[in-house]
Model the fold of this input.
Amino acid sequence: MTKSMLLVGVGGQGTILVSKILSEGLLEEGYDVKMAEIHGMAQRGGSVTTQIRFGEKVYSPTINKGEADVLVSFEKIEALRYIPMMKKGATLIVNEEEIWPLPVLSGIEEYPLGVMEEIKEKLEKVVSVNARAIAEELGEPRSANIVMLGLMVKALGIENIDWKSKIKKFLPEKVHEVNIKAFEKGISL
Amino acid sequence: MKKLMTGNEAIARGAYEAGCLVAAAYPGTPSTEILENVSTYKEIYSEWSTNEKVALEVAAGASIAGARSMAAMKHVGLNVAADPLFTIAYEGVNGGLVIITADEPGMHSSQNEQDNRLFAPHAKVALMEPSDAQECKDYMKRAFEISEEFDTPVLFKVTTRICHSKDAVELGEREEVGIKEYTKNPQKYIMVPAHAKIKHIEMEKERIPKLTEFSNTTDLNKIEWNDRKIGIITAGASYLHAKEVFGDTVSYLKVGFSWPLPDQKFKEFSEGVEKLYVIEENEPYMEQFIKALGIPCIGKEIFSVCGEISPQIIREAILGEKVDDGYILEIAPPTRPPALCAGCPHRGIFYAMSKHKNKIHVTSDIGCYTLGAMEPLNIGDTIICMGAGISAGIGFDKVNQMAGRNRKVFGVVGDSTFFHSGMTGLVDAVYNKSNMVTVILDNRITAMTGHQENPGTGKSISGVESPQIDLVGLVKAIGVKEENIRVIDPYDMDANKEAVKAAIEATEPFVIVTKQPCALIKDVQKKRANLYCQVNQEVCRKCKTCLKIGCPAISMKDGVVSMDIAMCNGCQVCLQVCPFHAIEAFGEEVK
Done:
């Protein structure tokens, strides 16, 4: 059975790196994997999405509306934006961080209140954490994405893969230790 | 060995394995990473060319001289390179020549969604369309062989989904094919009318019939017989989407070699199935050909010409299956458009220009400064294509004068765009006595596509030092008078204001060059890491002037203006626009 996972966030949050680590691990485990990224202007504060599909044989890299088995959102309102991509009964993993987009910053639009309450009321399976706060506690705010990776691995039930060596492969040595801790923290939540 | 690769990485790998020796490109999403990856193979000479026309000409010259060569560009880049394309098609090749066009159905990062397959019948060059990363690699090798066998350039069409999707690719070894002997051959390589007439006839009588025969027999155009009630003719990413929906329950004709199209195979396939669909993104390129053969088929009656195809679109169009409504939420998210970064050097000059909104028109261009056209800066009346920031300004200004509109035209381009095709516009402005203003935003990098070197950065694609083209010297050499040139630091608001004011008053071609590197360049980030601004809440009167510069580091939360000091790079534009001196600067540059 093919699984579809959608990762969304804001440029600079490290969603693409997490997608790369995840795809490599799944490939090594023997899955057929397709990963697609859309990052046109993401570095300039736009939203960034990556799609990972894995299973015995995967053809299309594209996830359609109502098809994602897991939605991983690195930011609160990005979760709102992409929830229509989820299958009914699918899992949402959300980082409760708020990153205000420019129209909100400059007062043209408003950042909505009560987002998490609304999400938790409508969806059955929601895992929410403040990955940024956890990462800050570990001493490296930028490892928030690896906390999220731990959560994803747990949600997908693929803890048996050697993720730590993958993390080491994709990150510079000086941040190995803190990111391994971040991963362990994520998987334990 | 299998490796996860994007289509772009696989194209580079295919070029490497095929023994390619010369590769040239101009950056453009979604094609940029092709050459970035090629440049990691030391066996291949790689270059960022000044523009796509130059890239294709470099590759064409290398091909004639005997090496397997390639040029890569985004779809609109092929418009720039169309001139050499149409004539190198007549001349043919010596070493194989492959031209990659990365199209963008869905326009994730482009100004149009033209379907570049249509270039193939127009220029009469062979066309190939891979579907995934493995095919990107395999087809590249085949493309060089086809190019040499049939003496034709090969147009190699991919799309965003293929360029930026990863799958497992089986790697092979590089095959050194060396450099072919070059023999002077004016009838082949000097396209004067007498030679071109012969070449054109040769193409029609010999090359195209041979290519058509190849198209009908090659395994690149492959029939997969399954149940024959439904037959699908498809190509590129659409093949993957169709397979996702139907698996092995319908029959397919997958077209990987798509000009000339395989007329005989189309007939054979159509005769073997009950109902025939053509699934292709954008234009009905195959469909029209098939219908012209008298074969009934269904295509754009049920599929849109606009946007990408997806499994869901196919499911709805052919099977009539609607997707269940997922979760419906009450709260709508605010939009998240891309924006100029905190510390972006374009912000200051744009803000200074925005102060004269009723006195100027702005013809803008393709690059990060495109983002200045959005609120709150709102700098931009037109965006067409690369270079038009200057040239369209010339025409706009002429008509403003005819209409008696008392408005100055400001053309805005970046450094890389100026080298790409802005220079010719400036020559035109000087030569034809336009009194428009040209603003060259020199941030020392090709920023929007993710930081590629260009002729002004002093480095080549491989990071090796290169002569740095003197941008201001060039402007002077073009004939802009010294007194009509302002070279300024765009973080200095007084300098911005003075330059814009002088430009509005000028009666001759006027050029403003802003000099400040992109805030995202690693060395710049390091140097400015400890710099930041902070709002003094006791002084702040909440007038919101600082919000009007559109900086993502400044926000007003619960009635308090605050600064994200981690994001702020201390450019101090906000500090200078604050009428109450409520913003203070902190920190020192890291030496």
Chain A has a mean pLDDT of 92. The radius of gyration of chain A is 16 Å. The CA atoms of residues 10 and 47 of chain A lie 5 Å apart.
